[in-house]
Amino acid sequence: MAIKVGIIGIGNQGGYYAEHMNYSKYLELTAVADINPARLEWAEKTVPHAARFADAIEMLDSGLVEACIVVTPHYDHPRYAMECMKRGIHVLVDKPAGVYTKQVKEMNAMADAHPEIKFGVMFCLRTIEVYQKVHDLIASGDFGEMRRMNWIITTWYRPQAYYDSGAWRATWAGEGGAVLMNQCPHQLDLLQWMCGVPKKVHSHLHFGKWHDIETEDDATVYMEFANGATGVFITSTGDARGTNRLEIQMDKGRFIVENDVLTIETYEMAEQDFSKASTTPFDTMSYTTEEFHGKTPDRFHFIVLDAWAEAVLGTGEMIADGREGLNSTMLTNAMQLSTFIGQTVEQPIDDELYYAELMKRVATSRQKTNVREVVADTSNTFGSAK
Question: What pTM does this model have?
Fold first, then answer.
């Protein structure tokens, strides 16, 4: 049974979904909506079987869609998700769930009021097996508690042309951020999914350090977790040759993810027990090492979409419930707020304070004059997420 699906926003990512909807086992593209006439002309040529709308609400009211994928600029993700819910239309939003926690909480509250709606979010990196394995190892409790995590994820390189390709990109008014709001919701979701939401965040963000933009393109963040574990998160869109390395130190081992390989080091006993038992000042503990070569699936976006479709059909579960998008949005907001006010921020953040600080920046957000609108093929950018 095919589910009739519409897409709101057929730019880079939405266009990819539309053009390749045949990858889905369950979804039939029946309509698209975009405010850009050029994109509707593209749709007429590329997906002529799909009805075209210049207004998303008209599409939702057309009766042509049972489910909808929202791939608009970020501020509009909650708005259109809620419009879908009001009409009984199942909805999946692209990441991030929203720009600020106030709007995401409003969206989640509406989802709670409509439990019949299957509400998902596009956290496609949860389909990568090495991260699934780390999640399961930590959740098992076999390695004790986490002590420290470090993640350097600088493989999100973007040249200036990327930021010049859209008037909304990397502006406070149009996007609400840059690398933390656009690229790293993937890793921030994985961070909270595997390690939990940190309780304290202190960030050093740089705004327009490597590009002519007003929002953050370089970030170094210190975190503290509820059990006393610490963490450092580093990301940038300015490193021509970046690194993606995650290291998690546990009581009884260490997990390292790099180059799609998970290295698992298992200690002979918990470090605190070894430290108490050893009588040798420079003693070291023995350990064993194994490698886990998990799969990074092709077209992982469509794995998420098909899992959402199976939830709609009642035959499966979603990869990520849309309500879970709040955690990564809260992390992004906390990282930005810490630099905005120059202080450590505790979770949950003060929603009103963040919103007020964001709106200060929105009020002075500059109008871009150097825009060269380009809709690019995103299929070769997914590897940066690995």
Answer: 0.94
